[in-house]
Amino acid sequence: MWIATMSGLNRFNGYDITVFKNIPGDSLSITDNRIRRIFEASDGSLWVGTNNGLNRHSIQTTDDNTPINQELFENFYFSSEEDGQNDIWSFAEDKAGNLWIGTAKNIRILPKNKFTNPTVSDFKIFTPNTPLWPKSLRVRISSFTWDRQGNMWIATIGGGVFFKPFKSDTLLTFQHNANNPNSLSSNYVLTIKEDSKGIIWIGTYLGGLNRYDPIGKSFRHYKNSPTSPKSISDNKVYDIVEYRNSYWIATLGGGINHFDPKTEVFTRFQHVETDPNSLANDNIRDILVDASENLWILTNRGVNIMDLKPQKFQHIKHDPYNKNSISHDYVSAVYDANFGEVWFGHNRGIDKMDKNGNFRFYKVLHDNPRSRDGYVYSIAGNQQGELFLSTFGGGIFKYNSAKDLFAPYTVVY
Q1: Residue 88 CA from chain centroid, whole number
Q2: Of the candidates 14, 40, 39, 5, which has an alpha carbon nearest to the alpha carbon of residue 345?
Q3: Residue pair 404/378 in contact by the 8 Å Cβ criterion
Q4: Which of 6, 119, 259, 357 could disulfide-pair with 247, CB 3.0 to 4.6 Å?
Q5: Is-contact 388 10, C-beta < 8 A?
Q6: What is the pLDDT of residue 234?
Q7: Would you call 166 helix, strand, or coil by DSSP?
Q8: In whole angstroms, what is the distance from residue 108 CA to residue 90 CA?
Q9: Taking CA 192 as the corner, what is the angle to CA 190 and CA 197, rounded to the nearest 5 degrees?
Q10: Which residue blocks in 180-265 are alpha helix, DSSP H?
Q11: Confidence of residue 356 (pLDDT cuts 50, 70, 90)
């Protein structure tokens, strides 16, 4: 499993963590330690987007293609200036196998037939046939997605949403127009999803939730109304999850909303100071629904689990009088190991929760004097059961199952 952090790239094989960091003067190391995105193409190649450059991971081989113990990164810089072209935000692969790369300035495409030994000139700038495409405006390409018809949707932070019809080079734009109530509510798009019925849902920053019907070709806005408790709780929509013909909406400051599209009523689940069974905090970092129909919610006051059947929250919080409780409430990462164990990372290290709900604390120590001991930024695993963590400034750590501890994972060149 590969883990993107702001302190380097991490790989976890279930036992050890390998840390890949930029080495000044080494053109075969990763270009920057601030990792934004990781993407595995259909040919198995691994692409890494950073704040300063694009990278492709490779394993050095001999003349007869026998792998040797040396892992390298091919570096690609699209500009010699700080204009956003080297700030990689997103990846996607189309049905033809071409690689799409979103930056803070533009979009580049690497054709499938150029995957072998590509050069910077092989990454062609996407220049759609529309005067509204922001050639000079600096916008970040937050995500790509293709709908069931093969049409491409491009979400941006600052430029709205762009739509590329299947088998067409023309690009249509969806942007906010103050004079058109049926336009996109905000050009700052945080998330975009297609549901099981083909409806496009768009979460924006300060513009609320947008529903776009490709048949009717109009937007329906859902915004907070101070006088209506049945409206969405906050206009900063961070994530959208479809569940049984309804939707769970995560907001930045308004907690969780359950949306029934038939009645168009939002049911709010928020923190209530006097209710210990309420949501622990209203600033939501991430949400997911697991196979047991539990809604997992990450906040800056701990992890919340909501059984979607009775719709009650179970709190996991530190109890100083219980040695089997989680060791800290500020949880920044969660990983389900799929065999009865759940790992939680926080600013003091990492906890493992067993199937009985008991926690065990692991310290994560390193020798970087500028980093913060124990701050686990993200956790990931792979199909081999290997577990990796990335830390804030301390590199990557790998779990050693034989010794039952986490140790720094480094690569020797």
Answers
A1: 13
A2: 5
A3: no
A4: 259
A5: yes
A6: 97
A7: coil
A8: 11
A9: 155
A10: none
A11: confident
Contact of 43 with 21, CB cutoff 8 Å:
no
Q: How far apart are CA 165 and CA 317, in angstroms?
A: 48
C-alpha span between 39 and 314 (Å, rounded): 34
Q: Name the 3-class secondary structure at 120.
A: helix
Give the separation between CA 254 and CA 232, rounded to whole angstroms: 8
Measured at the CA of 400, the angle between CA 395 and CA 401, to 5 degrees, comes to 145
Rounded to an integer, what distance in angstroms lies between the CA atom of residue 142 and that of residue 223?
22
Could you tell me if 286 and 273 are in contact, meaning their C-beta atoms sit under 8 angstroms apart? Answer: no
Q: Which token pair is 62?
A: 């001999």
The residue behind tokens 């409780």 is 325
Amino acid in position 70: Q
- What ranges in 78-184 are assigned the alpha helix state H? none
Task: Provide mean pLDDT across the span 72-95.
Answer: 89
Separation of alpha carbons 175 and 186, rounded Å: 7
CA distance 183 to 173: 10
Q: How far is residue 321's CA from residue 229's CA, in Å, rounded to a whole number?
A: 39
Question: Exposed e or buried b for every residue in 124-160, given b needs 16+ CB within 10 A?
Answer: eebebeeeebbeeeebbbbbbbbeeeebbbbbbbbbb
What is the rounded CA–CA span in Å between residue 173 and residue 203? 17
Integer Cα distance of 229 and 288 in angstroms: 25
Q: In 3-state terms, what secondary structure has residue 367?
A: coil
Q: What are phi and psi of 24, to 5 degrees?
A: -50, 130
* Coil vs helix vs strand at 121: helix
Element (H, E) at 30: none
Over the stretch 212-228, which tens digit does the pLDDT of each residue have?
Answer: 988 888 899 999 999 99
Rounded to whole angstroms, the Cα distance separating 175 from 197 reads 23
Nearest 5 degrees, angle CA 127-CA 130-CA 132? 105
The model's pLDDT over 302-311, given as tens digits with 9 standing for 90+, comes to: 678 888 876 6
Print the SS3 string covering 292-358: CCEEEEEEECEEEEEECCCCEEEEECCCCCCCCCCCCCCEEEEEECCCCCEEEEECCEEEEECCCCC
* 65 has pLDDT over 70: no
Q: Which of 327, 331, 325 is nearest to 344 (CA)?
A: 331
